[in-house]
Amino acid sequence: MGDPRIEAVAKVLVEYSVDVRPGQLVRLRGNPEGSPLLLAVYRQILERGGHPWLNLSLEETDELFLRHAAAAQLDYVAPFLHRVTEEIDASISVWAESNTKALSQADPGKQSRRAAALKTLFDRFLARAASGDLRWVETIHPTHAFAQDAEMSLAEFEDFVYRACRVDAADPIAAWREVSARQQELVDLLGRRSSIRVVAEGTDLTLSVAGRRWENCDGRMNFPDGEVFTGPVESSANGEIRFSYPACLYGREVEDVRLSFRDGRLVKATAAKNEAFLHEMLALDEGAKRLGEFALGTNPGITRFTKNILFDEKIGGTIHLALGKGHPETGSENQSAIHWDMVCDLRRGGRLYADDELLLEDGRLLLR
Q1: 3-state SS assignment for residue 211
Q2: What is the distance between the alpha carbons of residues 337 and 326, in angstroms, rounded to a whole number?
Q3: Residue 52's beta-bridge partner residues?
Q4: In the chain, where the domains are located
Q5: Is the dihedral of CA 336, 304, 148, 141 positive or negative?
Q6: Beta strands of the chain (E only): which ranges?
Q7: One digit per residue, pLDDT tens: the chain, 368 residues?
Q8: Contact between residue 10 and residue 37 where contact means Cβ atoms under 8 Å apart
Q9: 333 by DSSP, 3-state: which?
């Protein structure tokens, strides 16, 4: 008998996160490792009257591509992918890696060149999502690789994942609607503020959010979810920040990242490990040197670092910044081929001010 929690996750993804309706075309992406969840989602899309299109990939192909692809192949984007981006009504992605370090030795120059080639698709996807014309959600299916990164057994990691997904609730969809209502209070408060200051060990950073829209992340794009975010004014970041956890991208862990900003632009970046990779990504384009996102993590069910950004950026009592591409629905104008989230933990002595009013201290929100 299968795990009933998988069925519960599938139900939330299909009925709540993307709200599949009769006649809609739904792209379902993943690899064979995630087949238990992919199959459950596929069936529920059919039961809702949607048209599921399973876009299945093999994990090894990314490694092979980056090892053997010539310049013309790195730059090539199949024309039909543009049609796909225009024609799908919803997209559900299930990540289920069997080796999270498979790309750790890949050429970062090739990785950044491929990211640049796919930027047009990425931009159009986000633009359709921002307009409400396309709904999407990303999630994971627990694997041994994810569990090892989190330093848990597979059973422990499964319990962690499904608890964060709130599928242990009697009615998980109702539970996520409660999350949405609670986070909306924070979104409304921050929407009336124009400046943010973050203070912690190695960190004193200010930025402007004047005129920007805050988004309530309540399980409709990431699952599990639990954050509120916006796009900072591109020229506003000043000061420095030290990130508490490794910044993971393309299978690499960049440790003890420290960034300094002046008038919105990154002027200094260091790391204790994989600093060369950090600089390679920052050199990708001008937008990679500016902030595309500022966010607060709000999920109380996520309390520990797992080396998986889907969970780590949601840790209650943390903030995270993203270098690169901003979400257009926030008003962000930053353009880049990357969107790289990095997490700063405020649970031990950290403070966050909104318009000079203390809003978060030691990881606890002080809502009024």
Answers
A1: coil
A2: 10
A3: 26
A4: 4-164, 172-365
A5: negative
A6: 25-30, 51-56, 90-95, 135-140, 195-200, 203-208, 215-217, 227-230, 238-242, 247-249, 252-254, 258-262, 265-270, 291-297, 318-324, 339-345, 351-354, 357-361, 364-365
A7: 579 999 999 999 999 999 999 999 999 999 999 999 999 999 999 999 999 999 999 989 999 999 999 999 999 999 999 999 999 999 999 999 999 989 888 998 999 899 999 999 999 999 999 899 999 999 999 999 999 999 999 999 999 999 999 999 999 999 999 999 999 999 999 999 999 999 999 999 999 999 999 999 999 999 999 999 999 999 999 999 999 999 998 889 999 999 999 999 999 999 999 999 999 999 989 999 999 999 999 999 999 999 999 999 999 999 999 999 999 999 999 999 899 999 999 999 999 999 999 999 999 998 75
A8: yes
A9: coil
Helix (H) or strand (E) holding 161: helix 154-164
Task: Give every CB contact of residue 158 below 8 A, 6+ residues apart in sequence.
Answer: 3, 5, 142
Residue 114 near residue 74, CB atoms below 8 Å: yes
Q: Tokens for 308?
A: 């998986």
d(CA 339, CA 285): 12
- Among residues 15, 18, 13, 90, which one has the least CA distance to residue 53? 90
Structure tokens at 281: 């990504």
CB contact burial 191-208 (16+ within 10 A = b; e otherwise): eebebbbbbbeebebbbb
| 203 contacts 240 by C-beta, under 8 angstroms | yes
| Token pair recorded at residue 53 | 């299109």
Please give the C-alpha separations between residue 293 and each of 234, 298, 331, in angstroms, as whole numbers.
Answer: 10, 16, 11
For the chain, how many residues are written?
368
**Which CATH superfamily groups domain 4-164?**
Thermophilic metalloprotease (M29) (3.40.1830.10)
Q: Which amino acid is at 142?
A: P
Cβ contact 22:49 at 8 Å: yes
- For 56, residues 6+ apart whose C-beta sits below 8 A from its C-beta are 29, 30, 31, 32, 38
| CA atoms lying within 13 Å on the CB side of residue 163 | 11
Q: DSSP assignment, residue 22?
A: T
